[in-house]
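so ive been stuck on this for like two days lol. basically i have the seq below and the ligand is magnesium ion, smiles is in there too. i just want the complex predicted, nothing fancy, no docking runs or whatever. if the output looks off dont worry ill sanity check it later, just need somthing to start from for the group meeting slides
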Amino acid sequence: MVHIWPIGGGKGGSGKTFLTSALARLLAESGKRTLLVDLDLGAANLHTLVDVPYPTKSLSDFIRRKTPFLQDTVLQTPTPNLFLISGAHDSMDIANLPYEQKIKIVKAISKLEYDWILLDLGAGTSFNTLDFFLISQNGIFITTPEPTSIENAYRLVRAIYFRHIRHCFDAFYFKELEKEVVRQFGDDAINKPHCMMQVVQRLHPEIYVQLDNTVNSFKFRLILNQLRKQDNVAIGSQICQIIEKHLGLHIEFAGNVSYDDHIHDAICQRVSFLERYPHTRAATDLRELSKQMVNSVGSQLLMRYS
Ligand SMILES: Nc1ncnc2c1ncn2[C@@H]1O[C@H](COP(=O)(O)OP(=O)(O)OP(=O)(O)O)[C@@H](O)[C@H]1O
Ligand SMILES: [Mg+2]
């Protein structure tokens, strides 16, 4: 069974691309055929971190119908078992994909035959990011301990939850539901997905049951990256508690990755951080996280795309 892991985080520079590439290297090393897909359309740079400086093909070959098969855009990286679909040739117009194109990509990704597929997503809460995150139930959020990064991660979680509800209704009717939320719970409730869920439960009980089942099947996780010595080690689990309290969504805290200047050095030298600095705290943290991913059971595509 294919395991798909979308990796996102609200803020640019929080370490999504670095962590995605490092975790993928570790999964590939464990003998699993692992595919990286660069879905940070318009700002793709994953290829640089897996030592494919000049990708000869990319996702845009599939989007622009140069090839009918997504598999044809896959590149071999120098690491055994590690493959890449680069986003490197995608220009800004591809960053604004029409919905149908996006669904085509999502369906094609879910049919690829690899043991593990990791998706590197862009920062922010664009519809592309939200829809790619919702490909599978195994999404990972990355944040740093900085309040700005935490705030953006919180916004991303909320936007994903709303997007998931929104997919069940047309845009016009969803606006009507929003008005109903405000009527029932007041102006502040417009940002609270669980208030929207209560309105859906009252007006559309069947859709509510379906939505509630999927939300309960989410196995979203949070990784706290760039933890420095002086930072509070419990901050990651505290963020998860706050999300559960205010958004009603359970997110598991997966672990911390320590801040390490060697990461910058390794990226600048274009070498694998894990190979060059295997005995650092950050490398140990990454190995721990990849073990957790391997041990976590089951992975399903969300029903909408299956
Ligand atoms: N644990 C860490 N310790 C020290 N530096 C780190 C760590 N993780 C990432 N970095 C640094 O942060 C930089 C930004 O990381 P990265 O490009 O992965 O962020 P990103 O979230 O993908 O950003 P964007 O949203 O712009 O794509 C890296 O180049 C690296 O130097
Ligand atoms: Mg990135």
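The CA atoms of residues 14 and 143 lie 6 Å apart. Strands lie at 3-8, 34-39, 75-76, 82-85, 116-121, 140-143, 221-227, 252-258.
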